[in-house]
Amino acid sequence: MTSSVPGATELFILHALFKFQLGTAAFANFVLKPADLPLVGTLSWFVPTMEIVAGILLIVGLLTRLAAVLLATEMVFTGFVYKLADLHTGVLRPHGMGGAALDFVYLLGTEQAALHLAAILIWARR
After folding, report:
1. pTM of the entire structure?
2. Distances (CA, A) of 14 to 18, 19, 97
């Protein structure tokens, strides 16, 4: 079974590919270190890898609950640790950079996809 709502998951995959294109060192230096996160070196490759794998799992409909929990946890963590100061800026900050609202859109999209797939599974069992 494939997901009929792949839009948010595709955004996760594209966002992760951008992180790899930017380089894990740049992602670590400009995003993770300013947030004073531990294990910056590990997180710099783990986060985009997890976004790609979890996004693909949601699209193809495998381990959807686990994938949705991982992505939702990342968005909540990102929202509170890194983006809370940007909440007042809305979807776009100055210079076109994503604000906190974009992360919450990703979170809601992931939750919606997971709930949609759960409803399909419950309906299919009848």
Report:
1. 0.62
2. 6, 9, 15
Tell me if residue 98 falls in helix, strand or coil. Answer: strand
Burial tier of 56 (Cβ tally within 10 Å: 0-12, 13-18, 19+) = middle
Q: At what angle do helices 40-60 and 7-22 cross, to 10 degrees?
A: 150
Q: Quickly count helices (H) and strands (E) in the chain.
A: 5, 0
Rg, Å, the chain Cα set: 15
Per-residue pLDDT of the chain (126 residues; tens, 9 = 90+): 444 444 667 778 888 898 888 888 888 888 788 777 788 888 888 989 999 999 899 888 889 889 988 888 887 787 777 666 655 555 555 555 555 566 667 777 777 777 888 888 888 887
